[in-house]
Here is the input.
Amino acid sequence: MLKADLTEMLCKHPFVGDLHDPYLKLLVGCAKNVHFHDGDYLCHEGEAADLFFLIRSGRVAVEIHAGHKGKQRIQTIGPGEVLGWSWLIFPYRWHFDGCAVSEVSALALDGKCLRTKCDKDHDFGYEMLKRLANVFQSRMEATRLQLLDVYGSR
Amino acid sequence: MFIIQQKDFDSLISALKTRSYLVIGPTVRDNAVVYDEINAASDLPIGWTDEQDNSQYRLKRTTNGSFFGTSVGPYSWKRFLFPPRLKILSITKRGKALEIESDEPGERRRQYAFLGVRPCELSAIALQDKVFMDAQFSDRAYTVRRNGAFVVAVNCTRSGGTCFCTSMGTGPDAKEGYDIVLTEIVEKDQHYFVAEVGSAKGTDVMNDVPRTKASAAEIQLARKLVETARENMKKTMNAKGLRELLSENAESTHWDEVSRRCLMCANCTLVCPTCFCSTIEDTTDLSGEHAERWRRWDSCFTMDFAKVTGGNFRPSTRARYRQWITHKLSSWIDQFGTSGCVGCGRCITWCPVGIDITAEVQALRNNGVRAEA
Amino acid sequence: MKQTALAGIDGLIDPMVPQMMSIKKTVWETDDTFTLQLENAAYAEPDFSFLPGQFNMLYVFGMGESAISISSDPAKPTTLAHTIHRVGTVTNALSQMKRGEIIGLRGPFGSRWPIEKANGLDVCIVAGGIGLAPLRPVLYSLFRRRRDYGRVLLLYGARSPLDLLYRVELEEWSKLYDVEVLVTVDRSDSTWKGYIGVVPNLLSYIKLDARATIAMVCGPEIMMQYTIAEILRRGVPSDQIYLSMERNMKCAVGFCGHCQYGPKFICKDGPVFALTQISDLFEKKEI
Here is the structure.
């Protein structure tokens, strides 16, 4: 894939936003265009979180094994959203299974490599954390609303 | 304008009864002045006055023999126009079918003659007219009772202990809405009523009452007594900009303060002459073939008022007190064009902990967003 | 608005008197929500007309009334229907009634969705749970004159896949009427392939021509708050956003005082409001 195409795809994704060179070039260097089929797993709980994904199209379900309840899908991550932040947070392991529930196009980013770069260049680290903070916040708000169980009759 | 002597007052009552009116007026019962059927002047609270204050009501004897020496008591005329309990539907089940009767028994009733309606109460009746008649739908029960009612108003020549009609522009003298208005004058050895007619119905009744023409001096005296009441009004409410004051201070800490005092007893809404909230209750008999729907007074202070299945929109005391006072002084203006408060002071008198609407408004002004009064 | 009350002896219309309707059919949408189809008990001809967004008071003999939005096609009076969530005594009784049984109906009451304001615009309909029921008449009306509108989007969410209403129609609408339908659920097992998450989140998956969009929102109040916040953030003008509110309803004609929301009576000033009419109330707690 041409670097120019990757750059364009990255810039279109809300996570990247207004990131400029040289940081944008850093990301491009660590990015790969990937594709998953319905039913493919992007990650498994417990595995090393060396990658994270910027979803471009399709849906990935966050699955958690809930004992006797079996596999519970608690959220889907869709176009324009981010799957995975554990690449930057110790112990750098996935906390859930991510299963594609449709055809999925995404940009896979080498989190391990980016993590090292964050440690070395704190300004870059700040740019990454700022973006992840946004992801945490909107995920938290959505989760709160889900918790309220607004459709329940009690 | 006419003069009716005290000795001829019974003729006024008779004139109403011969026209088949059911005369309702003030009378003493259970240590208070309530409204009930009046057969003769002797049923009125003759020789009584009242002392009212925050959470206080006492009747006291006077020696001047006045007929209307008390100010408003716990009853208001809404008790008759908007009855506390009213059957609105009877339904009978016959097989699958449901048959409905919507006539109240005794619907073709005698009409009321209200004797002794204070000016603030005239305003209160006019406010409820707007709620029940001047709307997309008319409330039939109210309309039927209201259209036939005869109103004998009585101007106030003294301020009650919790009155603030002057602040609300509703008294102490009656401006409109009456068929006859009286001002009672008791002095030295004279006891008479200056009477004015306000409608054709009033003229008709007046024709059967012995009367003389009022002199300029007598008219002047009547006006002076009303002015005295105006000047000695016991309470005031700073009513300027209340619509905004209340709607803009929904989050004021003042509501927390009131909620520590308010018992949610709903007394204020029961005695208030303009409060109109009601609820519908369904009943059946044991056979299961006959059901009724009843309308009953309700109050926004009750726990269930804002309940829906699965929750309650207004569970806290704080929010319910705020709702009552905001509706009364602010939302009412958006809904009906004027304030819902007529300054009668009943809510102040009958609140068991003496919460004073005039003081609450002042406290909100001091606490709230709007600094200037 | 059609007046369905009976005249009393003195000629005054009494809005508390119901007309008699008989149960035509009960269709279960989920395990606790059903659609009641009604027909006029007195004559075979349907004469019930209403506007999208309006509601009726349905009376069960001896038990009481429930305020239910009308969820059928306004252009087809023979199909008068209400989708009802079975939560209390009256709705439970309604759910168990058989074909031919008689109930009372008062209505239609309330304000309507301003469909004519959508002419030439994109229409974004956002529904949560039973909130899709009062919006379904809007969709039927839009389909009748589909070319008068731009894009039609339906964003809909329910608690779980089993709680979704009108599943068959949802599919039909997207195919037959060029409606972009996005469905989400709050929770699911592993059989659901759609979105899982809250309704406001669906807005991040669509592009909007914000200034040329009219939004109509209905669902639990907190869901509407979050959704409208997101719609505003996307740039839809506040005077192009409409919502349907709910409160305790007793008389439905503005006399009993129960349904007051600030100075508004939900039964006659609402239930449908423009956001601009109630934006200051929306932010306050326990109004």
